[in-house]
Amino acid sequence: MWKPIYGERAEVDESLEEATICVENDFGRIMEIRLRAYSEGTAFQYFIPEQDKLKDFTITQEDTGFTFLKGSMSWEEHGVEGDFCVDHHFQYVLFNGGWYGSLDSANKAIDPKRLGDSRH
After folding, report:
1. Structure pTM?
2. What is the pLDDT along the chain (120 residues), one digit of tens a residue?
3. From CA 102, how far away is CA 89, in angstroms rounded?
4. Domain shared by 47 and 76, yes or no
5. What is the distance, to the nearest Å, from the Cα of residue 41 to the centroid of all Cα atoms in its chain?
6. Residue 114 phi/psi, 5° resolution?
7. In what order do the strands lie in the sheet with 30-38?
8. How far, in Å, CA of 49 to CA of 47, rounded?
9. Do residues 36 and 70 share a domain?
10. CA-wise closest residue to 78 among 88, 69, 68
11. In this structure, is residue 57 part of a structural domain?
């Protein structure tokens, strides 16, 4: 549990299940895909650990994509809950069937919902 300084809830439950998938290419370079499932959503992270076969590198392209059911709608929202940062936006989705979801890229900017989290 953590307590935000403002928001819809006084406490936020961060109970989760976590798994890590390790992948290795033909050159012996390793990447981890870290998966998390929370009660209200999921998250994943690409992680490249330190390794002898990979000293210095630059990521020049990232091609993660998402496919939604036919009939789903999507739109971007800039400045969610105010102007907290310049380069931060959320992608909202109305899925075929009537439920909503959102996509966000972590580590690009400060998430306004986590400003009150003293652990970071």
Report:
1. 0.62
2. 778 787 777 887 778 899 999 999 999 999 999 999 887 778 888 899 999 888 888 888 888 888 878 888 887 776 555 554 545 556 778 887 787 777 776 654 444 444 333 333
3. 10
4. no
5. 10
6. -110, 10
7. 16-24, 30-38, 41-47
8. 6
9. no
10. 88
11. no
Give the SS3 label for residue 112: helix
Print the domain residue range for 79: 66-120
Structure tokens at 7: 């928001």
Rounded Cα distance, 78 and 43, in Å: 21
Structural domain count of the chain:
2
Distance (Å, rounded) from C-alpha 115 to C-alpha 6?
9
Nearest to 78 by CA among 64, 62, 94, 89: 89
